Fold Tyrosine--tRNA ligase.
Amino acid sequence: MASTCSVMSRVSTCRRASFSSFSSSLLTRSSRGLPLTSASTTASASTSTSSSSSSSSSSASSAAATSGTNVVDVLRSRGLVEAMTDEDAMRAAASAASTKPLTVYCGFDPTAPSLHLGNLLGIVVLAWFQKCGHNVVALCGGATARVGDPSGKSAERPVLSEEALATNVDGITDTLGSLLRRAGGEENVKVLDNMSWYGSMSLLEFLREVGKNARVGVMMAKDSVKTRLEGEGMSYTEFTYQLLQGYDFYMLRREHGVTVQIGGSDQWGNITAGTDLIRRLEVGDAETDDDADGELSARLAHGLTFPLLLKSDGTKFGKSEGGAVWLRKDALSPYDFYQYLYRTADADVVRLLKSLTFVDLDEIDRLAQTLGDNEAQRVLASEVTRFVHGDEGLAEALKVTQAMAPGKKVAGESGVDGDTLRAIVSAGGAPVVDIARSNVVGQPYINVLVEAGLAKSKGEARRLVKGGGARLNEEVVKEEMYMLKDDDIIDDELLMVGSGKKKKVVVNLT
């Protein structure tokens, strides 16, 4: 079996191999390095709000309060439990966190370059296990992504190229390690890739070790299989996915002491495939009634699912008009991420505060009494953005939010700065117009208003200035014939002009 890779107190490297078709061999034996890197510690936010500051304190107190608390109680209190294989056994196992902590895992298939908001729930649940003193493993499915999980899908996923998969694995492992370390430190975190064990496993080995312990009748009874067979059907490749995920659980148990798998409610069939395979491979079909001393029960694996992230109207939370709400900054700006959360409906915000943040429940109860003034939405957006993008990302989001607010200053009395203008443009918050420097510096401001499209004529531009609606770098322009100077240009290339409180254009000097 190929060596596994982990992220503990430092970054380490594992080997990843290509995944060939089942017709010839389950997997090939060639491999390449997979760096598991993490984001560096971010700087403190330079911009904040009173609600986000207070919620940060609440988050800290919530984390402190979990010391010595049974994680099952914590998850239940926050609505993060859908089902468990055996709640009494799970609760008993979790109660010994200080002397014998559990090792828990959640899997993430790299089907895209970035995780999305729906994936965040699994990371948050792992983080609660961390905060309650347990060890966590985030498994990137570098191998299983080549097969595709049929759960919750009406059609087979498209096949990704090896290059795309490699890029996806690198991005997702980096995100997983960064978020889990941000949540609970480095000592009890591992990030693994299941290509580590599948990379050197042949088809015959898989059939002999896994296939002979699988029962087709049980596999056919899984909801993910029945639903697809009632529709357009499914390929053999997808049909075997539950065996691959089940074997992941077995390997993680054998090599890393993992005894609990968590996942969304649509993963119940795959999770129980793992607990069943572990029982068959390690315990056999012995009845637990014969386990007088409890030794056999102590060896059983546990499964826990949490509800999928849905809005009150039943639609998926984490989808916007532009597509998925991605977690990586290069896929979605912190500003757009923050704004999506800030627009959460009153009917959903309290439930999402419980499930997506670490804010203390007493504070959430207080926020529930303030619905209508958006304080709860501000806390939700601030806490989740800080968790995903760090203090620096939250500061960026708040700064752009302030800049985009009608009639608001961006950076105090001094106006705007270049980084904020670029962030506004990146977030799609204002159009960009290229104007020759010779048509700006030393020229009347009203000329730029016309060229930027904020006034149809110089006469209209003069009336805008006279009426107090003309703005330059968020300052009101009071002189009808104000002449633009070098000092008005930001970073020697940018300026912002505005008409009224809402219309803003960023001018790029060429």
User: Anything to note?
Assistant: The chain has a mean pLDDT of 79.
